[in-house]
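Record 1 of the preview.
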Amino acid sequence: MKKLAAVISTTLIMASASANAEVYLGAKAGATFLHSLCDSGTSGSCDEDSWALGAFLGYEINDTFALEAGFDALGETTSGDLDDESLKAYTIAPRYTQELADDLDVFAKLGGAFVDYADEEDWALLGAIGLSYNLTKNIDLQAEYQHINYIDVDVREFNANSFTLGFRTKFGGSDDETAEPVQEVMVEEAVEQPVEEPVEPVTKKFEKISIDSGNFELNSAELNSEGKQEADRLAVLMNEHPEAKVELVGYTDSLGAASYNQKLSEKRAQAVADELIDQGVDSSRITVRGEGENNPIASNDTKEGRAKNRRVEILVPEFEYEVK
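->
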């Protein structure tokens, strides 16, 4: 009983999966071939081969899965003191079907069997495989090989194999393939499209900000970690507003040669631009220039004033965008 628990649970789940199934009924006949019956410690005459008859009832969930129960009379066999004893099996198994070609399917079953032999009973595992040919819409012809594994009755342990030919017929549906299909008339219902109101653009303006000398390496145009963080915050705003453009203007103090200061101011403005580009801002949206020691915002006579004059001013011109 334990070895069938998983199989029975699976079949119950499949049976409850659909309330819109089709029922079928079938019958089969063929031959039975027992295996190991004569090797179970018996003496005397032994005959493992016999005829086979069967009937089955199925519950088709869809074209692929069904739940099938059946009764198999697997002939009469002789083994030692058992003479012409009948072998019967009551089976239940899920059935899986796969189309091979038009009107030709292959199917397989894996389930359980309750076996009665010589007034002894046992539960065993069952497997089957076969071919099914769709003779008509509701009638199939099928050939099936079935194996019942490890039947343990009395002092005998054996397997039961059978090969049968049979048919099954489905209940419901029609064989009249010449009937004209029902034509479905589609009626289009006019749907009023909502009128989209024009979206008024919104004007956006950023305050002018600066990256000062403390954001650059000493006597260098290379941004330090703090400077890169400032540039990265600007890149976030630029990526959020693809309509925006930015102007980067570099300045220095008045110490040193004017030509050197001019080049340094250009390099520092470009360093900020390069960081923006690395963060995904298109270079076409960036304007870079250097003003050298021009336009000081503090006195160059003091250390503090000169530090303020060494800067890169960031200006984002006013732009319009649509609120989505």
